[in-house]
């Protein structure tokens, strides 16, 4: 049965979040949604997969802080969804904190939080700087680079692999599987590749423990099984590689295309952290996610949400809700962290301080190394990757002067 059949034929036409047109200009789409539908919008995540997109900040907070009525467990929903559905791997049930509630949520989250909190921030900064130096060495004498494939992605991939104690061979497979899932292109195959790779990492660290997040998870009093371990790692990689890459890239794009902001940064009137906060409002790396599935038909501001059907929070739209941003102005977003980019409630991201540190260090290192860097193409030629969940550029080409051989 097509899930769209669960909704009456008189229901409003659903907006396709997977369409290239949506990816090209989501902010215009959110504005049209607000004018036509209000804070709760009928959408499709992929053909035949309906959902409700929440674009109102107050409504999002209500839902995110009510896990009893809006649990994150999708098991009833996914019984009606074929395994080949391209968005299913991003939404299906896994034995982890993201998709659990109650006692199990506490068990998984406590293990993850303990393993993440044990990361030494000074060592993490040094790791990012070393990896950034290595990435820069690959292109700084060339005069041009793609900051997605040659800088942000290698940093996110190698830093996360270092924190998790993951060898390059396994990490490469994990990155490939995760990219296929986020792009919803051959996502089922990507899911299989990812599952095997994280299982191999669990086996490795169970037999060869080290000072890393994977080993700490294995030794936590929660006594996670190998299957549970694999799904914790899927979540950590899912939250680490793609969103962190996009955060670095989207902030670099902001600095390269907003002359006022760039000037303010170089004049020390603003900081890289301010750029990150602004991007987390306007172009968060995970634009639409935090999926919940109402236990029963639930009324929110007069709109009835069907039971066991996805309710997706649009962090990007909620963050720019006029009710939240009225009177702030563009500069009011810098340093303001009322945004939902890290989610809210019991499923708030437990690693946001680490993400801030990694992104800020990577961007600062890049700006110090290449202070005269410029965008290599007109800003309107940059292309966004289609997909209902992420806000991700295909590439971010830059040019910069090179230092002459032997020059001081």
Could you describe the 3D structure shown?
This protein has 408 residues and is of the alpha+beta class. The chain has one domain (3-399): Cytochrome p450. Helices cover 50% and strands 9% of the residues. The protein is built from 17 helices and ten strands. The chain has a five-stranded mixed β-sheet with strand order 1-2-3-8-5. The protein has a three-stranded antiparallel β-sheet with strand order 4-10-9. Strands 6-7 form a two-stranded antiparallel ribbon. A hairpin with a 2-residue loop joins β6 and β7. The protein is globular and about 65 Å long.
- Helix fraction? 40-55%
Say how many strands there are.
Answer: 10
User: Number of helix segments?
Assistant: 17
Uncertain spans, ≥5 residues at pLDDT below 50? 4-10
Oligomer: single chain
CATH class wording: Mainly Alpha
The pLDDT mean sits at 90
Shape: globular
Helix-strand string: EHHEEHHHHHEHHHHHHHEEEEHHHEE
Second CATH tier, the architecture: Orthogonal Bundle
Distance between the termini: 69 Å
Return the CATH topology: Cytochrome p450
What is the name of the CATH superfamily? Cytochrome P450
Any idea what the radius of gyration is? 21 Å
Number of structurally distinct domains: 1
